[in-house]
Here is the input.
Amino acid sequence: MFIWKNVDIADNERAFLFRRNRFIRVLEPGRHRILQLGGDVRVERYDISNVIFERANAALSAKFLLNSQAEKLAPYIESYDLSDTEVGLLYRDGRLVDILAPGSFLPVWKGVEQVRVEIVDISEQYTIDEKLVRLLGRGSRVGRSAAAGSAVQYVEVPDEHVGLLTVNGKLEQRLVPGSYGFWKCNRSIGVQLVDLRLQTVEVSGQEILTKDRVSLRINLSASYKVLDPEKAVMKLGKYAEFIYRELQLRLREAVGTQSLDELLEDKDSLNLGIARDVREKLAEYGIEIATVGVKDIILPGDMKQILNQVVEAQKESEANLIKRREETQAMRSLHNTAKMMENSPVLMRLKELEALERVTARIDKISVYGGLEGVLNNLVKLQPSDAS
Here is the structure.
């Protein structure tokens, strides 16, 4: 058995010398001659280029070793110990590389890189500084890490939106458009985005009975705008679903109180009635209804056939009425003409000549017996009027 043992330590290494499982000292780069008499000797090698000091499969934890041998290890290792209400920002050579969760313990080798841990107290403050948000954003390397994902809540509020921030279920503030970051360690962070632009809701395919028991399928369209996001979200939660149900109920109520003929004759009154009722209801929750309109009223197939027959009968009746009116006017005119001809033989003679002219216009050849005067005298016999 050799009494002495030579151990070579590289420039990027440090070694811990143990004798009988007790820490003796740190071995620096170079050759070390170690006496093996006196008990079990063990040398643990560490690559300090990794910067982070870690003991794998060791009987003594790194924290216990550093605390118990603080005087011997202080020149080589620096440690950071975070409380349950603190997070750490780990910088290496001036670059942010990681986030330390509350309760973390981080030992690092000295003299390898410039290591700095910025400790942030999150017991009361949960908002992350705007400059730090850019470093922890989703596009950064740190922002994509698992540590950032578990420690940071990153939120972007687009234009024409607001964000409602809740901490542990309590509404804390309204967020204007921009980027935000929050520490979610030891607390529940929630941000709900509310669109302030004009929104559209469609209530389609509603099967409804009218007052006269006719089944209709109606499509309704409406537009709305959120004026008070806090009231709409905190009192209603899913306010879009609430608006849909209100429009659906008001539509059923309005249609159920009118007959089919009334609905078809005046859809505007239906729109106005629904809009009035819904507007009053939603105004209580900070929501404004801009427009409400019935897009389609769809009738069943048999009802369409019946209505077509009704319309056809109405049009036929109107046509017959017009025809009879024209016939009556024609008869009245003919009656007046006859009376005039009865009292005026000359007018009668002119009508006969007019008729003769129309007849002769259709005949290629005509034979006349007794001369033209005979024809005219025989066709029309004028009786001289008695001298008064």
In short: The mean pLDDT is 83. The longest strand covers residues 215-226. DSSP finds eleven helices and 18 strands in the chain. The radius of gyration is 51 Å.
